[in-house]
Structure formats: structure tokens, C-alpha cells
Amino acid sequence: MTTIVDYMGGGFGAKFGLGVEGQAACEAALELKRPVHLMLTREDEFLTAGNRSGAVIQVRAGVAKDGTLTALQGEIQRLGGVGGGSFSGFPYIYKLRDEKGLHSSIRSVYTHFDAARAMRAPGHVQASFAIESALDELGYLAGVGALDIRKQNLTDQVYHRQLDRAAKEIGWEAHPNKLAPQERPDAAGTKTGIGFAISTWGGGGHEECRVRVAVGRDGSLTATVGTQDLGNGTRTYVAAIAAEEFGLPLEAATARIGNTSYGRANASGGSTTAASLAPAVKDAAFNAAKALREHLAKGLGRGAAELAFRGGSVVESSGGKALMTWKEACATLGSAGISADGEWRSELAGNGVHGAQAAKVQVDLSTGRVRVLKMVGVQDCGLPLNRTAVESQLNGGMIQALSYALHEERVLETGLGLMLNANFVDYKIAGCQEMPELVPLIDEEDIGRGVIGMAEPAIVPGHSAIANAIFNACGVRLRSLPFTPDKVLDGLALLAANGGAK
After folding, report:
1. Which domains does the chain have, with CATH numbers?
2. pLDDT digits (tens, 9 = 90+) for 329-375
3. Diameter of the chain by CA atoms?
4. In 3-state terms, what secondary structure has residue 71?
């Protein structure tokens, strides 16, 4: 049986498998022996297509006078509905002075709701919020700045570099309230704060993809593989890698993907597609180019190593003298053209990404409204295949983090196990008016590690940075998402009753 998926947008993990709804459509198609079109209503999407796993986390921690973590205890309850849920582990990225001071327990609490599915960096978002909030709070108590306490507990110097870059872009050096919340509101009754957070992810590749690159007698260039494009640019970079190998523009190459008959490919999840697929495309294109040079060398009376492809022509590899156009070269081929296969090459891929984000927020003390003014994201991904796409993915991650930080929440009737807001009228997401200034920055010092996937970690630290920025602004420590005005006002009232921020 052949599976055809020419286009699939908005995967984000929920479409990693067929699900009950997809299985039902397949069974109906087999029974009817005709195509079946599956379309979910918005309510169906909420109720049957899975949600992100939740978590309830209790943290106890201690630091030395210089901000070094000395003790950390975490009790984590994963909430995955009828599934086990997800949590990435504890502590998240940061290191204790002595690992003997670390203790954590993780258990799943089952509830009568649909099972959670993967949703961009499953388990990392929850762990980030817990550890970043705890560390931030300890920093204020110890009199250590939000930037310094993070660097104090990070052994990986890449994070130091990225945090410094984020701090520079967000305006941390000139920020007046580094060690305590803003003392007095401005004339408009608002306070402004800055917060930081970091992320990690694997993003490495695997030996799963098989790619064929073919050159036709008519000058066509195709790269064929049975992968999918979830809207993250797979189709573009498959064509771009092949075109680059032959010195041709992007539009000269065609990516044939989305069909299981085209050749084996990894499942599109875990940010592993780019690192698994790109090296295989490069290998196939290199092999095809080598075969074409060897073919042309016979007719030109030269060695294959003396030929190169540049600017749409076959040229001398040393001097660059044009010998024939691309079309002329392809016309010398037989009717079958020429093709070559490629597979994953470990030296062309890397693994393990870092990210640091900073958020600047404004809190209205009269309404409790939090407005995010600016977000900065610094991300490494090894070799960027498409810089614009990388920046777009980083922007998208920050926007999604902002949305679930301030707006998104399932309202559940716990007695019956019902969702009460399975629609986009009552389930709020960020819109155009909530968009802050977004600054996506590629870590330029990391481009030598090969290709690494980076889409998922971009969503991880944004909500934590926003929570820390809210505290830095007004002294309210919010311990549950979303950060809605009522929670801010309750926190401000509690502060006032206790004599102000401590």
C-alpha cells in the first residue's frame, strides 16, 4: 500500500501518528475501495486529536551566597489524561555543585481526558517553567542578578554566550531594576521588567533516509525521497541542496516527496527530519554530480576532476573557463539520463542544540494586563540550511510560547471529564495585537557542526522568560499558566496585604 502526503501543515507533534480518527478513515477507505476525505471540526480537533501534557511540579531548592545551586528537590506529577504524560527530567539543564543534593520523583496521574500527544518539545516546556522560576526566585533572595545566577549554574559556555547576546539585545545593561522589582510605577500606572530562560534539544539525525537525485536529458534535476513537509521548509532545502551541487538556481531543481514509494525516510518528528534528510540529499547529489562529470569527461577529453558545475555551466575546475552550458551537457545523456542514490552521512549532521531567550514585559497595575513588549531568541542549529526559515521558526516558537503563556487554557469540568471551551471563541490564542517586537538571532559561532534540527527548542523557554519578567516588573511570582490579569491582580493584592514585594 502506498501512502501519499503531498502537503501536511501544522503538525507540531499531533500528526506524528494516525490517531483513532486517521485509522477510522483508512479502514473506511479499504472497505469502500475509494478515497476517504477526513476533516475534523474545531471541536473534534480539541476533543479527539490530543493535547499537550500538563504537569504539577513542587520544587524546593537552595543556593549559596554566590548563587550556586546546592540543593534541589522536585516532585513531579505528569498529567497526560488517560496516557502517561511527559516530562523531560529534573533539573532542566542547570547543574548543582554536588549531584548528591539532587532528588526528584516523577509519577503519572491518570484522568478521564483524552491522552496527551507530542506537542513541540514534550516535557521540556513543563520542566523549564519549574526550574527557571525557582532559580529566578532564588537569585532575588540571594541578591544575584537574573543573568548572573543562570551563568553561575551552567557549565556549558555556549549558554553563557547566548545569554549575553540575549541580554544585550533586550537592553539588560541599561535596565534599572536588576536585583529587585520596579519600585514605583510610571505615569501610566505600569511597571516594566525583563526575564531570561534557556532551552535544549537533541535535533540529531539518523540513518533512515534514502534519496535519489536524477539528471534528465532535458536538463531537469530531481531529488526524490519519501519524506513529508509539515510546513517547515523540507521541500525547499531538498531542492536547494541538489541545485547547489550542480551550480544551479533553486528553481532548476524539483523535490519529489510525500510518497512512500519514493524511498525510505524518517518520520517527521523530534526535529530530526533536517538532520536525517539533508545529509542524504547531499550524498545523493554529490554522487550524481560525480557520475555526470565522469560522463562528460569522456567527451571532453579531460579528467573528471578537471570539471565543475558553476553558474549554470560546466567549467574548468581550476580556471573557471566555461566549456558548455547545463542544457548542452544534459543533451549528451541517453534517454534514461543519469541518477545516483544517497544515504545519511554522520559527518554532515550534528546533535544537541542550545537556546536562550529574553522577554521584556509591561504590567498594568490597575487591570493586571501583561503586555509583552519585546522577545529575543538566540538559537544554534549547526549549519543553517535556510537562514530565513530558521529565523521564521524561531519567531514562530516565541509567538507560540507567548500565546500559551498569556492566553491558552483548556477549561475542564473535572466531575464529568468534559472540556467546556472546545472552540476558538472561548479558547484564546494570541493575535496580531498581542505581537511584540521579535528578534530572532542565529548563533553564528555554531555553524561548523553540521545540520541540526532546531524548531522544537524555540518554543521551550519563552513562557518562563515572560513569567520571570513579570516578577521583575511588579514582584508577582505567577506559578501557573496562563498568566491572566486576574492572577496578576490577586498577586498584587497579596503583595499589598503583606507590605509589598520581598
Report:
1. 54-203+350-497 (3.30.365.10), 210-347 (3.30.365.10)
2. 999 999 999 999 999 999 999 999 999 999 999 999 999 999 999 99
3. 90
4. strand
Query: Could you tell me if 153 and 68 are in contact, meaning their C-beta atoms sit under 8 angstroms apart?
Result: yes
Bridge partners, 347 (sequence order): none
Distance between CA 406 and CA 435 in Å, rounded?
Answer: 12
Long-range pairs for 365-369: beta carbons < 8 A, 24 or more residues apart: 365/185, 365/189, 365/190, 365/191, 365/474, 365/492, 366/189, 367/485, 367/489, 368/484, 368/485, 368/486, 368/487, 368/488, 368/489, 368/492, 369/485, 369/488
**Residue 408, pLDDT above cutoff 70:** yes
Distances (CA, A) of 198 to 135, 259, 297, 408: 12, 37, 53, 22
Mean pLDDT of the residues in the chain: 94
Please state whether the peptide bond connecting residue 482 to the residue before it is cis, i.e. omega within 30 degrees of 0.
yes
Q: H or E stretch including 101?
A: none
Q: Would you say 286 and 213 are in contact if contact means Cβ atoms under 8 Å apart?
A: no
Cell of 345: 552521512
Who contacts 493 (Cβ-Cβ below 8 Å, separation ≥6)? none
DSSP codes, 361-390: EEEETTT--EEEEEEEEEE--BS-S-HHHH
Q: Are 47 and 81 in contact (CB under 8 A)?
A: no
Q: Tell me which of 209-223, 345-359, 404-418 is least confident.
A: 404-418
Contacts with 287 (C-beta within 8 Å, 6 or more apart), sequence order: 213, 340, 341, 342
Cell of 358: 529574553
- Helices and strands, number each (H, E), in the chain: 11, 16
Rounded to the nearest angstrom, the gap between the alpha carbon of residue 16 and the centroid of all alpha carbons in its chain is 15
* pLDDT over threshold 50, residue 502: no
Can you give the pTM of this predicted structure? 0.95
- C-alpha 271/C-alpha 352 separation (Å) is 11
